[in-house]
Structures are given as C-alpha cells and as structure tokens.
Amino acid sequence: ASCRKAIVAWGRISMDNARPVLEPDDLHQLRWALGNLLAMLSASCGLFLDLDVAPWVAAVLLAGLIVFRWPTLPGWIPGWGHRLAFPLIVTAVTADLYGGTDTLTALVRVQLLLLTYRIISYRKRRDDLQVVLLGLFLVVLTGVMTLSLAFAVQLFAFTGTALALLLVTTLADVTRGAAGAADAAPAAGHRPAPAWAVELRWRRLIRRLRASVDWRLVALGVGLFGGVVAVTAMLFTAIPRFELGRSFFLDQLITKKTRTGFPESIQFGDV
Question: The pTM is what?
C-alpha cells in the first residue's frame, strides 16, 4: 500500500511538473515560419553568384518580410491569382531564354520566382518539401560556383533550418488529426486565411516554444549537428581535387560574358 501511494504521489508530481505541449496550430505556425526563413536563406545565396539575379533575390526577401509582418496577407490572394502563377512563371523564363539570357541565369531566376510564390501562399506538406528542394538546388549551385568563406556560415544556417523544418513538419503530420483541415485551403475563389494564421502572434509563439522545449534535447541536437559538420569538414579537406576543365556541365550554361579572361586552351610556349 505504501509503494502504491508513493507511485501515485510521484505521478502527480510528474503531471504538475510536465512541460506544456505545442498545439497543432502552434506547429503550423512554426512550420510556416521556418519554411519562409528557409526560402529567404536559400534566395540570399544568389548574392554570392556572379549572375544578374539581385532583383529576384530582393523580391524573395521583401516578400518574406511582408508576410512575417502580416501573416494573413496571403489569404487575400484570389483563386485566379494562384491559377495564373504557373503560366506567368513559365512566360518569364521563356522570355529570359529568348531575350539572350544565359541558361544558368534563367534557371536561377525561375527558382527565385518559385520561392517567391511559395512564400506568399499558405503551404501544405508537399509545398514545404518543395521549398527544401529548391533551396538545396540554390545552395549546391552556389557552393560549386563560389569560393567565399561567408557562404560556409550560410550553408550551416540553411542545413540547421532545413532539419528543423523537416522535424516540425513530421510532428505536424503526427498531430494532424482533427486540426488537419486548418492546413488546407479552398481550391477556387477567395482563399481565407487559416485559423492558425489569424491567431499568429510571434511573442506568444516564442513564449510557448520556450516553455515546451526540452533544452537538453536541443543541446543534444546541436551537438550531433556539430559533429556532422566536423566530420564533413574533415572529409572535405581529405578528398582530392580534380581539374574537370571543359567537361564541367555548368561551364556550358554560362555565356562568355560571365567568364574570366583566361583562354580555353594553352599550348607549350604560350603565355
């Protein structure tokens, strides 16, 4: 009997000291914020490229700041606006290609246009995964074509944000249940803002995160991520480098106006 009383008392103490659990609306708000942040980080990689994409990068960053300030703004976009998004993006990339823009610049521009559209619309799970994929393409492309050390810091920030987004997306799928309809939007007509966007208050969300997060798990995750980064850095320095030369496919996508002043071939005795 005494053991039973002790177990009951311990259970009451555990329930009193239990951390609050994030509600489905909180997870949707956090997932949406991380997706926007990931899109902005990915778009800022274009600043490291020697390509004419600065206005497109500015559009992504501006759209991200606007929707962070007014989360219900994407709900005011009518249904016909969403239906016209794809034809407009295709028209823009076609005009770029026929206007003399090199293939790589046009490809980066269409990626930035897609990220802009994903920021100004409420995303489902597949849309968040598309943001991760688009961002990964820009990050890998920038990593191949740049030698800036600042890009390494941005790469780590992108990786951490992407992992956090995938984690929150998984948690939102697990707790979808009755709250799953809040993530959906009508297929046509006016698309009202979902309940989680109407009730989004950044200070409230931060307070709930601070109250519900187990910082020991956060420290463990940061430590594991740091270990992966360290191992990756060692492998990067250990892997030998090869001169790919003209066989590198990206070199054929850029016009000569964006190349350096080196000749394509050098013979013995040439300078």
Answer: 0.71
